[in-house]
Amino acid sequence: MENGLRLINIYKSFGDTCALCGVSFDVAQGEIVALLGPSGCGKSTTLMLIAGLEMPDQGDIIWNNESLDGIPPHQRGFGLMFQDYALFPHMNVFDNVAFGLRMARLPEAEVKRRVNEALALVGLPDFSRRDVLNLSGGEQQRVALARSLAPHPYLLMLDEPLGALDRTLRERLIWEVSDILHNLHQTALYVTHDQEEAFAISDRVVLLNAGKVEQISTPQMLYRQPASMFAARFLGMDNLVKGVCRRVNGGYEVESDLGKISLSNSVEGNIMLLLRPDAVNLDGRGSCRLDGRVVKHSFRGNTCRVTVIVNQTLLKFDFPSSQPIPQVGEELQLSFDPHEAIQVFQD
Ligand code: ATP
Prior knowledge:
The chain is of the alpha+beta class. It has helices at 43-51, 93-103, 108-121, 137-149, 167-183, 195-201, 219-224, 229-234, 338-341, and strands spanning 4-14, 17-28, 32-36, 58-63, 66-67, 78-82, 155-159, 187-192, 204-209, 212-217, 240-248, 251-256, 259-263, 269-275, 288-299, 303-310, 313-320, 331-336, 342-346.
């Protein structure tokens, strides 16, 4: 196998709670993988096990084809960066970044070289002598990133590192962190419950749900083809409608509250039909039509989310704000191409 990290069928319980129930995934060398999922799904537990701060009940964690079983945390050569970046308030920026290097007893000249290199990487080359208490939240976060990069960790694990920052700063730092990690070819595991952050930073996403892996794929594929209703809902795709699917003339026909829709690919029997919120239009493109009435709309910047009632079913759609937005009470006809807009899950 490729060098990097591999988790094989990991189980971990705390009392009666199964925090991880058979989790397997890989992070290839130089790859950034996001561990994404709702609160309590097992993200932090996964990091603790990889770091060696907790032991799995079952399963194995492999680094470069060798088991980490029995290897203590300080010998793994992995770095951790947390949301509460916990800089030492009584030390200046230089000493904060140097901390781990001095603990590892590197010669002072090498410490100086690595600290300067790490501060330059995060865009704070002249900040060595600054007091950490006088830095802005974003600067503190970058110092914390420099501190975790300075020891040149084989694997860097970041646990909701931007969670405490306001939205504007978070959006800027997402791009900066992504650039820094990619330019360094840093192998990294990035934990977040925020899909935008996961999509912007990672090469691949591992979606966790209640201690199990729900889906592993690139951000684009996860968004284009959520593999389950959980994945669809987690990504904000709520237009799920019950239906029944039958084989008809080499294809399929789904009958639901939205009427009859023909599909070339599906599964037979009771199904849930997902109508993607971004794949319908108002200008007649596509072979399917739905008549509805607007009951709500909310402006979101680039897009406007419009709630439409179709045959007593409420559906939500996102339209570009640059187009005229249908008003509440307006009757409209939604058009779509079923191959693009519809996905079917077995119920
Ligand atoms: P969050 O996003 O809220 O940090 P998470 O996805 O990181 O959540 P974990 O912290 O890994 O989730 O927790 C997974 C489950 O294991 C939860 O039900 C949690 O309550 C439980 N758990 C985690 N650590 C412990 C512990 N030390 N003792 C008891 N239960 C724990």
